[in-house]
Amino acid sequence: MGSSSSNMNHIPDAEELMQETGFSSAHLLRLYERFEFLDREKRGELSPDDFEAVGRLALNPIGGRIIGAFFSQGQETVDFASFVRILAHFRPADTNRRDGAPQDPANSQTRKLKFAFQLYDQDGDGMISRVELLQVLRAMMGIQVTEEQLQSIAERAIQEADLDRDDAISFDEFKKSLEKVNIDHKMSIRFLR
Ligand SMILES: [Ca+2]
Ligand SMILES: [Ca+2]
């Protein structure tokens, strides 16, 4: 621990970020190394192009949407603090809470679900429409399924989740339909453990 704390010095606002996101200093250092690696022009900020270099994201069918989440406030670049805040959604849930941990940390069940919901709700109106659902399904399943199969999968998903029958999935409905799914497991990045 003693040797890593000296390296922490060049990380801007390291203490605040650890407090806010729950990352340990070891995590933060690793994220900083990654950030510096991606920041090819050494500007202290990343552009969407820099993310394309992350092979795993490029291969992920909804990788483009995940990259988009880093730029959701319309900004063109991401600094280290924003980078860490977004990745905090992928931190596994705490088994034992530390004193002074944030009330609603980014890795809480609800915040993880909200993050996932936004990947579907591309127009940001708070509802997943049939079209938006189809777009994600199409991206995820690619050419393995026919348009007809896709439609019927979407139809079934909407019928199961759409409790108030308005033909769209609200966040509450999304949350309820995923209650049995282990979102924490699905939305954790192994290197953050
Ligand atoms: Ca929408
Ligand atoms: Ca609904």
Quick structural gist:
By secondary structure, the chain is mainly α. It has helices spanning 2-7, 14-21, 25-38, 48-52, 55-59, 63-70, 80-87, 109-120, 130-141, 147-161, 171-177, 183-186; strands spanning 45-46, 78-79, 127-129, 168-170.
Which radius of gyration do the C-alpha atoms yield? Answer: 18 Å
pLDDT < 50 stretches: 1-5
Q: State the CATH architecture of the largest domain.
A: Orthogonal Bundle
Distance between the termini: 17 Å
Structural domain count = 2
State the CATH class of the largest domain: Mainly Alpha
Mean pLDDT: 85
Can you characterise this structure?
- By secondary structure, this protein is mainly alpha-helical.
- It folds into two domains: 1-92, Recoverin, domain 1 (Orthogonal Bundle), CATH 1.10.238.10; 108-187, EF-hand (Recoverin, domain 1), CATH 1.10.238.
- Helices cover 54% and strands 5% of the residues.
- It contains twelve helices and four strands.
- It has helices at residues 2-7, 14-21, 25-38, 48-52, 55-59, 63-70, 80-87, 109-120, 130-141, 147-161, 171-177, 183-186; strands at residues 45-46, 78-79, 127-129, 168-170.
- The protein has a two-stranded antiparallel sheet with strand order 1-2.
- The longest helix has 15 residues, at 147-161.
- It is globular, with a radius of gyration of 18 Å.
- Residues 121, 123, 125, 127-129, 132 line the site of one calcium ion.
- This is Calcineurin-like EF-hand protein 2.
- It is found in: Cell membrane; Cytoplasm; Nucleus.
- InterPro entries: Calcineurin_B_homologous, EF-hand-dom_pair, EF_Hand_1_Ca_BS, EF_hand_dom.
- Belongs to the calcineurin regulatory subunit family. CHP subfamily.
- GO terms for molecular function: calcium ion binding.
